[in-house]
Here is the input.
Amino acid sequence: MLTGNTPEQPARLYTEPPITAFGNASRQFDQAAHVLGLTDNQIAIVKLPRLIVQANLPVKMDDGRIRIFQAFRVQHNKARGPAKGGIRFHPDVNLDEVSALAFWMTVKCAVAGIPMGGAKGGVVVDPAGLSVTELERLSRRYVAELIEFFGPDVDVPAPDVGTNAQMMGWMMDTYIMHTRRYTPAAITGKPLEIGGSAGREAAAARGLLFNVQRWAQRTGHHLRGMTVAVQGFGNVGSWSARLLAADGCRVVAISDISGAYYNPDGIDVEAAIGHARANRGILASYETKPGVKKLDDAMHVLELPVDILVPAALENQITVKNAGRIRARLIAEGADGPITYDADEILNQAGIPVIPDILCNSGGVTVSYLEWVQNRIGLFWSEERVNRDLEEIMDRAFDAVYETAQHRGISMRMAAFVVGIELVVRASEARGLYA
Here is the structure.
């Protein structure tokens, strides 16, 4: 698009501003604040993170060397309850990203009706480059160094990219050893044997499935036979592919760091999961399977002509550079922030509906909340009970967002921010400001 075509200001090609996760989050907040008509005081009390913690963690390696790892914890807002959010181990972790994720978690909890606020943590590390014992030392050091900021009534971490249930177990044990109190509710996403919840592993993807099913019900579509492409084949991506396939969809493309793999007749998702499990967790060489083709560019998985696209990798995957080439009929966000603010506008204009991350992937934090509740009361539920509660919560959240979008004539993403931010503002005002 050409702008400013005057003699004094020559025409120039529009380009997207530098993409930062918190920049996207701030623009989303500002737009929702405008829709809601928030006052300057209301914006001041809920927009920015309330607490930012940075630390350098010394960890002894197996060979005796001491390495320093940069770590973060951001608590965005706790007006509706203790902070809640995962801990990410990834080489690209930075404060901007963690701050954005904490903000999205605040809104995500509110949209789902969970009485908690938003937080996020991260460590700058490639977990694949550490041994199991080194990962354990790093996990324990993270909690030991930041322990004053954690607790079941303060801030409750959970797994995220690069972390898993075992690491949450180490973190919980570290917290308990320091506090000398058995408080499994201090950490969620733990192994079942030490207080984890049934259904937690598939929770984020199952929540995505429930959202897609509800979208189909509210819009008169039928999922059986719909084609699906999934970007990212970690926990959320692989489970999303598995559950959508089990519901009658045909998964035709999957991808991970090794590339993108396409079979128009449908990919055997269970076989693909088995292949990845046997191959250090990645899909490398999956193109050797019958009927499977490896795409020239892994990003092309986003541009296939499918019914449902599930971006389940990292943020900023769909930008102004490729948004115009998206051909899906529906985008269900499994990752946090996979579409940039400006790309969102392009998709809106193209009439491609998006079930936004703060709604679509909120199944993970919802079951984390249910785990926290079970830990607090000392009573554990069956997976059927957990999934039933999850479906009820997801359906209620989807309906609130969908109806807000219809009533206000806005996208589902903006409707989700409007619903969530309004609840956080109301909670903040009900509590007042401690002088």
Q: What stands out?
A: The radius of gyration is 21 Å. Residues 1-14 have pLDDT under 50 and may be disordered. The first strand starts at residue 2 and ends at 3. Residues 203-360 form a domain with the Rossmann fold fold (CATH 3.40.50.720).
